[in-house]
Amino acid sequence: MQIHSSAMVSSKAKLDNSVSVGPYSIITENVIIGAETKIGAHCVIEGNTSIGKNCEIFTGAVLGSRPQDLKFKGEKVFLEIGDNNIIREYCTLNPGTQEGGKTVVGNNNLLMAYSHIAHDCKVGNDCVLANNSTLAGHVTIEDKAVIGGIVAIHQFVRIGMLSIIGGCSKVVQDIPPFSTCDGHPARVYGLNLVGLRRKGISHNSIKQIDQAFKIFFNSGLSVKHALERAEMELEKTEEVAYLINFAKNSERGMTRSCR
Questions:
Q1: What are the CA-CA distances from residue 123 to residues 61, 119, 181 (Å)?
Q2: Is residue 121 located within the same domain as residue 239?
């Protein structure tokens, strides 16, 4: 274990022997850090925070500090971070807010500088949060989503898998999977074709998703009638079924088309 002489690490924290900790970093009791993870300088890791294997935490990151929620009264809450994550300079990640509440970050994510993940958020795998992206409480980010710089996401919003949100967008409703969105407030501009192709989605399934988008976002139908038409007309590929289920279970309503 490589711990800089100026770092303060609680004897009750559980660090794998291969962990390194940079100058002036503070790690409190109850923190768990997995193998090969590197903690940079001036980081603060506290609370009931667990970090997986092979993560890189850069200068000034603050992980596990009390949630920014006036309802929080010191309950036992958690922050869980998976493996192979890169958390760049001055990112802030808060734990859950009610007793037993959790903020969970999956694997292989890139959180760029000054990103903020608030209480009770869920971030999947292989996501990118660009500089200054901000998640309010209870936000869900599904796998392989890309959040542009200076994007603000309203509480309880769900960001669908393989979606991409342009920089400086204001997100107040759910972002559908496989979409490209942008704006203030954000609106759907079309498919994330690059992401779909990189994922290896078949040409036929992409065609069916495109038809689904035309029904949901360009037909002028209400969500209820768009769902009925999509279920009646479209081939139920795995991706189309996922999109339909996403629309059915959207609590804040899906973001609409730019048109």
A1: 17, 12, 19
A2: no
